[in-house]
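Human:
Take a look at this sequence-structure pair and walk me through the tokens.
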Amino acid sequence: MRATHCLMRAIVGLLLTGCAGIDTAPTPETRQALAPTGKLRVGLVLGSPTSVIRESASGEMKGVGFDLGKDFARRMGVPFEPVVYDSSGALVDSAKANQWDVTFLTVSPARAKEMDFIAPLLEIEFGYLVPSGSSISRLADVDRPGIRVAVQEKGAADSMVSRALKNAQVVRGPSVAAGLQMLKSGKADVVAANKPSLFEMSDQLPGSRVLDGGFATEQVAMAIPKGREFRMAYVRKFVEDAKSEGLVKAAIERAGLRGVVAAPLK
């Protein structure tokens, strides 16, 4: 009987430990460090599904950063306050101005000078879009002489695809949308970009296809301003809990993202 009682106590303890994960409240010191204004100000880039988008009909906001920021504020027990920017550059430029407390951005060495990145949340695959009737059916078909690959000049895909391709010609435009126009007009044979953008373009070009596989990936991570490093353990725990509890996967699905997966658990 005593053995049965001990076993039941152990089971209950395990269940309580599992349930505690994503709802663990911070210490007052951690709450003050991460949300010094009493609210959690989450820096977001409007128009990016990995950050925040606004439904045109309802005005409802959603996106991976928006949803996870709201969850993090709930976990901390403070109000959630979205701080919205028109571009990732504007958000990064504001890192030293104390305008936000946490954000969600693609990781880069330049950005790491302005903020501290936590463990990755998302992995975004980069690949290729081909038009209807194209003879290109797999990744290996792209890197051939005479194939013109459109990319956004100085965008993330530009340097990646330039390293990946040895024989194809890279043609550059001012935006990802310009790459789609080059494909439509016959000035390019392929568009290279991140998979979420490619799927959106494919919806605008009947018969086009996003090729299976990719030539590179980039990671989106949660980040905090420099100077709050001593509270990174609490933020890192939230990131790992969000992945293991399925919050990241749910936010990806709610935002309608394709070509994006939750980063693996450490």
Confidence is low (pLDDT under 50) at residues 3-21. The CA atoms of residues 144 and 168 lie 5 Å apart.
